[in-house]
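call fold target=L-asparagine permease
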Amino acid sequence: MSQSVSQNDSSSESHAANGSSAARSRREGDDAYRKGLTPRHIRMIAIGGAIGTGLFLGAGGRIATAGPALVVAYAVTGLFAFFMLRAMGELVLHRPTSGSFVSYAREMYGDKLAFVAGWMYWIQWALASIVDVTAAAIYVHYWSFFTSVPQWLLAFAALTIVLTINLLSVKFFGELEFWFAIIKVGALVTFLLVGSMVLAFQYPISGARPGLHLIADHGGWLPNGMLPLVLVVVGVTFAYSGIELVGIAAGETKDPVAVMPKAVNSILWRIAVFYVGSVLLLVLLLPNNMYSASESPFVTFFDRIGIPSAGNVMNFVVLTAALSSLNAGLYSTGRILRSMAMKGAAPRFTAKMSQAGVPIGGVILTAFVTLIGVGLNYIVPSEAFEIAINVSALGVLSTWSVICLCQIKLHSRARRGEVARPAFKAPGSPYTSYATLGFLACILGLMAIDYPIGTYTVSSLVIIVPALTLGWYAIKRSGRSESAESL
């Protein structure tokens, strides 16, 4: 009899929890989305988010600056990126939602942190979109036909094309990201195979044979000292931004409990192979001083080995990567802004949905801000990329920190018996989440000493923090944060 009562109580608790989850889903607008993303879309979005502009374009300048030891920076940063993603995976399995970490911040810490997390994430992707349109313009300039076209005009064209794509249905977005990811992975696999063969058979490139001796002959692992390596970690961290996109996409798939663990776990070996493996191979194939910030290191390699049109093909691939990243940024910020608007923490128009189930208001707002990037490409085309990377990095640090804090809170609540942790738990938590927070704090410190751009970037917090504070109190004063049900 007592066992029966216990089972009934458990069943009641389960129904209550499900009802509470459903109610929260309605309040945050999840029920308005089309569950159009399939498991293959989610898997490839996970890959695509982990392979982007930061690797395809940013690695060249970082190799030239930091030297071959850059591979260590990619490996260490990749490990902490994986810890963060496993923390995100646990939160997603706890409660899938298109509001992602903003929704979890609201659940675990309240509306104030959710407000800050959401707007910092929007700043991250809005500025990342500047990086992506800048990268797209740089890639197109590679072809002589476009050399005379102003960089700002190419950036504007990239934004127009991708915005049009993003305003279509989520199913089309998923299909496009699927093929974008296929192209990126295919290109990296091709590079790894060709590069490994060149290294194995000691095929000379520009008169020099590849191998470890290239490192020894050009100043060793740290040709410019330790400081440049330490400072480029900021850019390396940005290179991993976007892997949290898979958590947002979970809100638009039918069975996230089955799909997410596989997608998240696959990220670790992809980081090891595609990031660490590619950078290691690059430094073994060519001296670090042959790479530059103005050209993809993969294009540099294929041009140097003299394969006809290989540079053109690889340049098309990295152009695709930039457009893919821009597409993902518009997608993610649209969902985050809608989740916030449903709680009165973002402009009302960003809650607007199109007939195709796309949060059209938020997507257009991010696209409008990306026009600033077009302006930067007009005013300071040579510096637009680095300026946007550094400011966007603040959003990356904020987002990853909030994810780790939410996982720590979930772990704490589970220990007190308030909630049940999902079967897909972050390994070594909460210690891995604490370690990741410490790593992120170090990155912020490194940014502060990286004069002038890094120092100015951190100094911008003097403006950002008061602006967010004023925004929060303005919303509280207007009563909009209490109007979720009316939206």
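return ok
The chain has one domain: 35-472. The two ends are 47 Å apart (CA to CA).
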